[in-house]
Every structure is written in structure tokens, then in C-alpha cells.
Amino acid sequence: RPGIKKSKVIIMDNSGNQNQSRLLMAAVASMAILFIWSYFNPPPKPPVKPDEPAAAAQPAETAAQIEQQPVAPAQSELSAAADAVPNRTITIKSPLYEVTLDSRGAVATSWVLLKNVSYKGEFPLFADGSTGGEEKPLQLISPEALQRTPREVPFRLSTPDQAVNNFVNDRNFAISAADEVIALAPGEEKRIDFTLTDGSGIEVKKSFVFRGDSYITDLSVDLKRGGQPVADTKLLIGASIGDHAINAHNFYHIESEAVAGINGDIVRHQGSYSFKFDANNQATLAVPGTVNWAGVGDAYFAMAAIPAVPAQGLELRASKYEVETKPFYYSIFSWVTRSATTRETRHLVTAYLPIGADGSVTQIYTGSK
To answer: How many of the other CB atoms lie within 10 Å of CB of 95?
Structure first.
């Protein structure tokens, strides 16, 4: 997407009353065509194979909705003492991106793309709605995700033990790098280690390797309890990586969705139609099959993780919420009737990717699609 993106959302424009009749007739004709097309071409129903008469009898073959269950009591005794490590942030700058990592949880709290480099050439990147006079940073981390409690940001960890989850995601890690800002030129790379220990035997180290001329970051997670890797550890990608300057979403500006490589195919799950939300606007979706990679992204930008070894057990979680927007027209009909909308339902979608907690490397790609 070269340079400054231009939104496809119809902006309110009450000027220019000339030729209004012809414009209205054209719009009505367009609607008629759309209605006729929809009537004679309904969406196809999913095919049912003859040898699969009952989908419920084979839950392993399809993505299964999982009802939200109360969190089980903590299974381990972790220190309840005050955090002894002070909070720090460290920023990595390169010609391609600018990333901020937070010592609390060793997670990413800002990821700004600066430039797109491909075989087609190079060009700067800015957020949706930017102009020559106002170039907005292309921030991929959701402001809504940042203000949630707990924060729904990339590189959190999940295990079957909620006490361990709270510990590794809410405590401050010690950071190996002393500098607050690290600048990387093309050809340079930097390893940054985040370490955290507890008297109960929990040890965790997250190691990041950033490169000045690559959108790929290496992340290794070494999470041990009693000297042994913690089983069923998952790395969280999201929530909802993408361009968050978009005022309203449509066919051209889709919301961030979960995408994964499963059994050699690509599967997609968008928050607006793939999830069944409970009374608290929360949803969980299990995706069966062997996971080669998984991530989240919108129409143009994504963050995807490739585990060292393909695994089973990908899980997606989502929540929905309402936001105020600038006035926009959701459809041709609303445009014809001049019925502008100023609210939109949005979704936070996160991929829970199974990884080895033995220090093996997971590659993270964050950039243009």
C-alpha cells in the first residue's frame, strides 16, 4: 500500500446539490441491482459430505466453540511479595519500524511501521486518514487492548496454571540491555533478554532478536518450573494487530482477523462472524489441526508467528465492544437516505499459539501483507 492510504469509507459530503435527481436515480438503480442479485444468488450453504452425516459426531474435524468457564483455582504457590524489579521500557528503532517493549510481562506496547520494503520498491508508511500536512504514525497495537485489565498485547504467555499466567504477565522482568533506546542500522542486530524468577521454582526468560533490515524478530521462551519446561505453554499474538486509525470498517478496510496455516491450508476467523459471544461479550474458538503458523492482521498489515515445531491446539479468543466514530454511511441505502452512523461494534481477536517453552525460537513477522 504505497504512501498514504486513502479510506474507502464514504465521507459525509453535503455540498453539491446539482444533478441530485440523477444521482438519486442512479443510487436507487444500483440498490435494485444489488437486491435482485442477492435474491437470485444467495450465499451457498456449506456442503455436507455423504460420509459425514453428523458434524457433531466428529468434533475434531471442525473449529469448536468453547463456552467460557470460570477460571480454576491457582495450582501453584507463587510469591505474593511486592514486585522488586522497577518498571522499564526499551525502544528499538530501525529504518523499518519502531518497537517499545515493557518490562512488565516482557510484552510489546507499541509497534509502529515506518517503511515498506519489497521487490516493488520502498515507500514510507502512515496511518489511514493521513495527508501531506498530517502524517499519522502507523501504530499496530490497539489502544483498546492497551487499556484493558489485563492488557491484551503481544507476547503474553498462557499455561494451564492461572497463577503462573498472572506471574509471568504481570511482574517486571529484568532487562539485559541498559540503554532505553537502541538504534539499529541495516545489517545490525540486537539480542535483548528479559528474565524473571520466583522462590517457588518458576524461571522464565524471553529473548528477542531484532534486525535493522528485517521485519522478522526471533523470540525464544524458556519457561521452567522445578527445572522442567512448563507443558502446554502458548504465546499470545494480538490482540487485533492492524491500522487503528481507520474510522469505520468495510470491505476494503476489514477489521483485524485471526489467520493461521492449518494442515497446509489457510483458515481465517473474523471477530464479526466467527465467534459466538457470551453475556460478557467474550468468546473462545478452538481450531483443530496441525499449526504451522498463526497470527492476526487486517487488510494490509499483520503479525504472524512461526513456531519452531508445528503443534496442535491453536486457540482463538475474542471480545467485542462499542466505539464512537466520525459520521459515516454504512451502506448504499444509508447514503441515499442520508442516515449517517456514529457508532461501530469492534472486536479484539487474539491467537493463542502452542510453542515449546524450552528456549526454542519462534519467528515473528510484523509488517505489510
So the answer is: 15
Cβ 112 vs Cβ 135: under 8 Å: no
Confidence of residue 81 (pLDDT cuts 50, 70, 90): low
The SS3 of residue 51 is: coil
- Report how far residue 55's alpha carbon sits from residue 275's, in angstroms, rounded to the nearest whole number: 18
DSSP string, 147-201: HSSS---TT-EE-S-HHHHHHHHHSBPEES---SEEE--TT-EEEEEEEEE-TTS
Q: Supply the pLDDT for residue 169.
A: 98
Q: Assign a CATH topology to domain 61-73+84-368.
A: Beta-galactosidase; Chain A, domain 5 (2.70.98)
Burial, 29: exposed, middle or buried (Cβ in 10 Å; 0-12, 13-18, 19+)?
A: exposed
User: Residue 307: which of 360, 245, 239 has the closest Cα?
Assistant: 360
> Per-domain residue ranges for the chain?
61-73+84-368
Interacting residues of 263 by C-beta distance below 8 A, sequence separation 6+: 289, 290
Which backbone phi and psi does 166 adopt, to 5 degrees?
-60, -40
Lowest mean pLDDT among 162-176, 303-317, 328-342: 328-342
Helix (H, G, I), strand (E, B) or coil at 299: coil
| Closest by Cα among 97, 85, 366, 361 to 208 | 361
Alpha-carbon distance values, 59 to 20, 270, 278, 316 (Å): 55, 21, 21, 16
Residue 59: what pLDDT? 41
The count of C-alpha atoms lying within 13 angstroms of the C-alpha of 274, restricted to the half-sphere facing its C-beta, is 26
Q: Residues 307, 230: contact at Cβ < 8 Å?
A: no
Question: Bridge partners of 259?
Answer: 268, 295
| Separation in Å, CA 43 to CA 37, 47, 53, 264, 268 | 11, 12, 22, 26, 18
> Which positions ≥6 away from 182 have C-beta within 8 Å?
90, 91, 92, 93, 190, 192, 210
Measured in Å, how far apart are the chain's first and last C-alpha atoms?
9
Q: In this structure, what are the phi and psi dihedrals at residue 24, rounded to the nearest 5 degrees?
A: -65, -45
Distances (CA, A) of 12 to 6, 81, 275, 327, 336: 15, 55, 32, 7, 12
